[in-house]
Design goal:
Helix content: 25-40%
Radius of gyration: 40 Å
CATH superfamily of one domain: DnaA, N-terminal domain
CATH class of one domain: Alpha Beta
Strand content: 5-15%
Strand order of the largest sheet: 1-2-3
Number of helices: 7
CATH architecture of one domain: 2-Layer Sandwich
Oligomer: single chain
Amino acid sequence: MADDTSAHTPPNGGIPKDRGGYELASKALEEARAAARAAGKSVGQGRASPVRRRRTTGTRRSWSGAGPDARDPQPFGRLAAQIAGSRGWQADLGKGMVFGMWDTIVGPDIAAHAQPTLLRDKVLHVQAESTAWATQLRYIQSQVLAKIAEGVGHGVVTSLRITGPKAPSWKKGPRSVPGRGPRDTYG
């Protein structure tokens, strides 16, 4: 007679049909707990375990973990902004950004025909290449101020003083006579 063990074992790999997945998991958990108790460990107490948690409200942990830490690398822009703020350089940085980023702030069309010359007391002096461009910039002055505030920050520039090209000088040489100058030059 042959040794037939397949007749004595259930067809699904040794698991009786009356036991479901929950019962099998429960039995495996109980076996694991029994093995842990045999090893001398405290098992099955959940959050009431004797291990004390040191976390208190309002204190910050002193080790690295999943959350941000003061020792984590910081973006360079954030560090530069903190240094500038602590030393009072914000106003000077704003001025530099207005002059340095003029083309990107107002766009290439306006930047090709008008340039900033001076920023004093939150008033930006802009010189246009012609009187027509100066007039056009005066019409869109509020839009230009909004673009500057968006690009550089609010409060850096509060108003614009737009001027046209400089008039020609009639003074020739180191000595000149004061007065109104030539009268009948143009006609």
